[in-house]
Design a protein that fits this description.
This protein is mainly alpha-helical. It is built from three helices and two strands, in the order ββααα. Helix content is about 75%, strand content about 10%. The chain has a two-stranded antiparallel ribbon. The longest helix is centred in the last third of the chain and has 33 residues.
Length: about 110
């Protein structure tokens, strides 16, 4: 997946985009985009909230960026910088899903 897909000049610098870079870019935009989702949900609720989709986007974005740093770049700083946020995103996602399941079970009773 290290073959060059795109090569162009950006502000006088040559830019090479590989498949792994595309995964890294998509992960970065997904991870950053979660704040737009959080802001929209908070605006709709009229107070700060964190919707479950925020955690899905956190987990997905973290995994994509972590994959880029692990397989595409082999950069230990990037791996460490994205490994722990990925763990926290999956932990919070599991808490949210367990809470949702518990609330559904209580509603049935």
């Amino acid at each position: 997946m290290n073959s060059t897909l795109l090569f162009f000049h950006f502000f006088g610098h040559a830019v090479t985009v590989t498949g792994w870079k595309l995964i890294g870019y998509l992960g970065t935009f997904t991870f950053a985009g979660r704040w737009v989702v959080q802001m929209a949900a908070s605006r709709k609720a009229g107070h700060p909230v964190v919707p479950i989709f925020f955690w899905y986007m956190s987990a997905a974005g973290s995994l994509m960026v972590l994959s880029y740093f692990t397989f595409g770049k082999n950069d230990s700083v990037g791996i460490l910088g994205n490994f722990f946020p990925a763990l926290i995103a999956f932990y919070n996602l599991s808490l949210a899903l367990r809470h949702k399941k518990r609330k559904a079970a209580e509603a049935v009773r």
